[in-house]
Amino acid sequence: MESTNKLAVLIDADNAQAAIIDGLLAEIAKYGTANVKRIYGDWTQPQLNRWKEILLKHSIQPIQQFGYTRGKNSTDSALIIDAMDLLYSDKFDGFCLISSDSDFTKLAARIREAGLLVYGFGEQKTPEPFVAACDKFIFTEVLQDDEDEKTPSRKRKTTKDLKQDTKLINLIRNAIKASSDESGWAHLAPVGSYLAKASAEFDPRNYGYSKLGELINATQLFEMEERKVGEGHSKAIYVRDKRK
User: Higher confidence at residue 81 or residue 66?
Assistant: First the structure.
């Protein structure tokens, strides 16, 4: 079922790549409708030319912000002021902040304090405080078009790599434990919900897997089984820690 959330999409052109736009908008569509799409930058600068070429196609409104002082990012201030105006309009259910800049950490936290959702999008170099301040954070490396050269984040991790990632394994184990019945089996859906709440940046695509079940299965540390649901042909996936 599609989400009906009304979203405000605010892009920091100085800290986002135009190449991600198609994947970005497709990802945002999973979480709601982009009622407002704005992008901020000094459009007199040649480094933003790539963005200029695609704004009209995607109906993104460019907001001009001159760099009045060398070394100061006035784009950040303009985006933050607009975000607060939109927040107080009470017309939105959430915000999508596209930047790899930690300057938006307090903005994300303030929006969440108001009870709205915050989806962050940025490169893997994004400072951890900004990532943690969002309800969900998507690394933009996974949004590149399929024909683009594969980035390290999209390369499928091997079973050995996954087993050595103690943070990931502990996160999955905690999710299964919190969602399981007395026998230790947990339905995959609530496991996924727990992971999303426990870690803003968690995404199977960061490890090269398109689905959560594929990622968990690849670790070879968990049992998985399909169970028939009701009288129809529907099936549900259940998982259990092999240590159980």
Answer: 81
